[in-house]
From TrEMBL:
Coiled coil: none annotated. It is found in: Membrane. This is Beta-lactamase family protein. It holds the Pfam family Beta-lactamase. Keywords: Membrane, Signal. Residues 1-21 form the signal peptide. Residues 71-364 form the Beta-lactamase-related domain. The lineage of its organism: Bacteria, Pseudomonadati, Bacteroidota, Chitinophagia, Chitinophagales. PANTHER family: D-ALANYL-D-ALANINE-CARBOXYPEPTIDASE/ENDOPEPTIDASE AMPH, PENICILLIN-BINDING PROTEIN 4.
Length: 403
């Protein structure tokens, strides 16, 4: 496989003027690339750059050395790319097209970061209240006392459509939509999991309904709203919400044994998943959350605050974002994703303004170990967590899974 490789720059004086080297050739028996060190990364001396390069390459080798990695990753500090690589193929069986910068991956549940912020944008503009009950948007909604905020922070108690649709007899030959998910709550009447607001329970139904609320309040389809408010202004040119017409052109996903997933009955529901993007576009999304041009500071504060403290521990959930809140005051703002063969990780370290993005389209649970890379930037105590996030936070579903 062709590898992207850049020679480590020796002197800071030469950093600003040098260009990246051309990609090097194959390394026998490996699909791992040396990190790409960008010449524009000017915030560190040679020793720091050495440390980053060594840590990233060591992580890739020990994490994916035996199983391989089919996807892309990007690590940045202060908005400048430290390391970036595109490893593998659009189709790891045919191997006829190597992954490139503009190949957009299914973000799976990382899509929730966009849906959550879309709702908060409408709240910021005074077009909805987080305390609105769902009956305001869905006439005679069959579950009582559930608010928009409870959808955002997963405290609604609603049943998860990725679990109950099949159990309650959904015809798998019919592709379900967001409106079908809403209708199923009225028709199938799956039981509420607990009294609204009582506790946290990760549920994809919450975000499928939030996408419908975005549509009702904005008067636009969810894909149109996301393009107008986020993707176009931020020049996220390779990012889109999946629609049926995208089925043939979108990046496919694969099981670990390389069996390709086809279009399945829950694959048209968006809001909880179904946004496609690239690592570079996700860096643009990350950077947009550091200034006041897109959101007010109080909106970001609401998004990145925890709302579930009934159990002790470091893990929590904001409004569309997972949180790790350490006793030493450090906070990791992130989201994982899993749908079919897609595994995704989007990590933000606001204190250091560092970003870790890893996107794969062939199932590989090792991708969730990317959180260990946080320790490059500070005392985040993640290097020994192994599969903690995957084991403790995953919700297995009929359709292939979501985090």
């Amino acid at each position: 496989m062709k590898h992207r490789f850049v020679q480590l720059l020796v002197l800071m004086a030469s950093l600003a003027g040098c260009r990246n080297a051309e990609p090097a050739g194959n390394t026998p028996g490996s699909n791992l690339s040396a990190p790409v060190i960008k010449a524009s990364f000017t915030h560190a001396d040679k020793a720091v750059i050495d440390r980053y390069e060594s840590a990233i390459q060591s992580f890739m080798e020990r994490t994916f050395g035996t199983r391989g990695f089919n996807g892309s990753y990007l690590i940045a500090k202060d908005g400048e790319i430290i390391a970036e690589a595109y490893l593998g193929y659009r189709d790891p069986v045919l191997k006829d097209s190597e992954l490139q910068e503009h190949d957009a991956f299914h973000l799976a549940s990382v899509s929730k970061t966009f849906t959550g912020m879309a709702v908060l944008k409408l709240w910021e503009e005074g077009k909805l209240s987080l305390d609105d009950e769902l009956s305001k948007y869905f006439e005679k909604f069959p579950y009582k006392n559930i608010t928009v905020k409870m959808l955002l922070n997963h405290r609604s108690g609603l049943p998860n459509y990725t679990n109950y649709l099949d159990v309650y007899g959904w015809d798998k030959k019919k592709l379900a939509t967001n409106l079908d998910v809403l209708a199923s709550l009225y028709k199938m009447k799956p039981p509420i999991q607990f009294t609204a607001g009582k506790r946290f329970n990760y549920c994809n139904t919450n975000y499928a309904l939030l996408a419908l609320i975005v549509e009702k309040v904005s008067g636009q389809s969810f894909p149109e709203y996301m393009e107008e408010k986020f993707f176009v202004p931020l020049q996220m040119n390779d990012t889109y919400v999946f629609r049926p017409e995208d089925a043939n052109a979108s990046l496919p996903s694969f099981e670990a044994n390389n069996r390709r997933y086809g279009l399945e009955f829950m694959d048209l529901v968006y809001g909880d998943k179904n946004i496609y993007s690239t690592v570079r576009d996700m860096l643009k999304w990350d950077q947009a959350l550091y200034n006041d041009s897109l959101f007010k500071p109080e909106t970001l504060q609401a998004a990145f605050s925890g709302y579930s403290y009934e159990k002790s521990g470091t893990r929590n959930y904001g409004l569309g974002w997972r949180l790790t809140e350490l006793k030493n005051g450090k906070k990791i703002v992130y989201h994982n994703g899993w749908w079919h063969g897609n595994n995704t990780v989007f990590i933000r370290l606001p204190e250091e303004k560092a970003t870790i993005i890893m996107l794969g389209n062939r199932y590989n649970r090792n991708i969730y170990k990317a959180k260990q890379l946080c320790d490059m930037f500070g005392d985040y105590q993640q290097s020994n967590n192994l599969f903690q996030d995957m084991e403790n936070e995953a919700t297995v579903s009929v359709g292939g899974g979501t985090d």
